[in-house]
Write a structure and sequence with these properties.
The chain is an alpha+beta fold. The protein has a domain of 192 residues: Alpha-Beta Complex (Naphthalene 1,2-dioxygenase Alpha Subunit, Chain A, domain 1). Helices cover 19% and strands 35% of the residues. Strands 8, 9, 10, 11, 12, 13, 14 and 15 form an eight-stranded antiparallel sheet that branches. The protein has a four-stranded antiparallel sheet with strand order 2-3-4-5, with no helix packed on it. A three-stranded antiparallel sheet has the order 1-7-6.
Length: 281
C-alpha cells in the first residue's frame, strides 16, 4: 500500500503519562521500529539507523513523523480552554488496520449493541438521518445533526439523555467527537482518538478527552473511556477483511454508514491508503 501520503503526517507515539514513567521505550510507526528517549520535557525519537525524527508535544501527547516535511498538525480549539479537564487515557493496542479503528469510532449504529447501558440500549436503536460532508476549505470530513438516545452519555451524566453529536476527521488516523456536555449544555465535550499505525494491520489507539467535569475523579474518567474502547476491541479484531476496503464492491453500506462512506471516499481521493484495500480481488 502507498506510503507517500502516510509518511508526511504526524502520529502519536506516547502520552504524557508514558513519557513520565517509561522512557526510554521501543515502539513502531508505519512498519518501522523507533526508540523514544530523552526526557519527558525534551524527548528524542530515533529510527533503527539513527535518524532523528521531528518531535511535537501537543494535546498531552508526543507526536512524530517519518516525513522530511510533515503537514501542519490540525488544531483543536478547545485545547486552549483552561477551564476544561484534559484527560489522556493511555494507549489500547488493537490488531486491526489503523483506518478501521478510526471508522469504528465514527460508527453510531453499534452503540446499543456493543456499549449497552452506556452509549445506547435497545429498543432505541434507530439512527436518524444526519449530514456528512467533506469541507473543502479545511479538507476535513464532518458529520453533523446527529442525535442519539444514551443511558450514560458521559461519566458526569446522571440520567439518560438525547445526546447531540458532531464528528470531525481532520487527518486519516484522527477523529474528533463533539458531544452534548451534561453539566454545561452550552458547550461540547470533546473526545478524540489519535491512532498510531504500528503496521497496516496493527495499531495503538490513544483516546483523549477535553471535558467540563471537575467532580469525577481523574482515574474514573480514564476508566470510563478505556472501558468503552475495550468493548470495541474484540469487534475490531474480528472484522474481515482486516484492512479497510475503499472499493464499495467489498462492503455494502447502509444509510446509517454514511460517515464511513464519505470517510472512505475522502481517503481514496487523498491517496491515504496505508491500512486500506483499494480494489476488489
Amino acid at each position: 500500500m502507498s506510503m507517500s501520503y502516510a509518511q508526511n503526517d504526524w502520529y502519536v507515539v506516547g502520552d504524557i503519562h508514558k513519557l513520565a514513567k517509561d522512557l526510554p521505550y521501543q515502539t513502531a510507526l508505519l512498519g518501522q521500529s523507533i526508540t523514544v528517549g530523552g526526557t519527558a520535557q525534551d524527548p528524542r525519537i530515533t529510527t533503527e539507523d539513527g535518524t532523528v525524527l521531528p518531535v511535537l508535544l501537543q494535546y498531552d501527547h508526543l507526536w512524530t513523523s517519518l516525513g522530511a516535511d510533515p503537514r501542519p498538525l490540525f488544531e483543536i480549539a478547545e485545547a486552549q480552554q483552561s477551564t476544561r479537564t484534559f484527560v489522556p487515557c493511555g494507549g489500547v493496542t488493537v490488531r486491526c488496520s489503523p483506518l478501521r479503528a478510526v471508522e469504528n469510532f465514527l460508527d453510531i449504529a453499534h452503540f446499543p449493541f456493543v456499549h449497552t447501558g452506556i452509549l445506547g440500549e435497545e429498543p432505541n436503536t434507530e439512527v436518524h438521518p444526519y449530514k456528512v460532508e467533506i469541507r473543502e476549505d479545511v479538507d476535513e470530513v464532518w458529520a453533523t445533526q446527529i442525535g442519539f438516545h444514551q443511558p450514560q452519555a458521559a461519566k458526569s451524566a446522571t440520567t439518560s439523555i438525547e445526546t447531540q453529536y458532531q464528528y470531525r476527521v481532520p487527518a486519516p488516523t484522527t477523529a474528533v467527537l463533539y458531544k452534548t456536555c451534561p453539566p454545561k449544555p452550552t458547550e461540547w465535550d470533546v473526545i478524540a482518538i489519535f491512532v498510531q499505525p504500528l503496521a497496516e494491520d496493527h495499531c495503538i489507539a490513544w483516546p483523549w478527552m477535553a471535558l467540563f467535569d471537575d467532580v469525577t475523579p481523574y482515574a474514573e474518567l480514564v476508566q470510563f473511556q478505556q472501558e468503552i474502547f475495550l468493548q470495541d476491541r474484540s469487534i475490531l479484531e474480528n472484522q474481515k477483511p482486516t484492512l479497510l476496503p475503499l472499493d464499495p464492491k467489498l462492503e455494502i453500506p447502509t444509510r446509517c454508514d454514511l460517515t464511513s462512506v464519505v470517510y472512505r471516499r475522502w481517503l481514496k481521493r487523498k491517496g491515504a491508503t496505508y491500512g486500506a484495500l483499494t480494489t476488489a480481488a
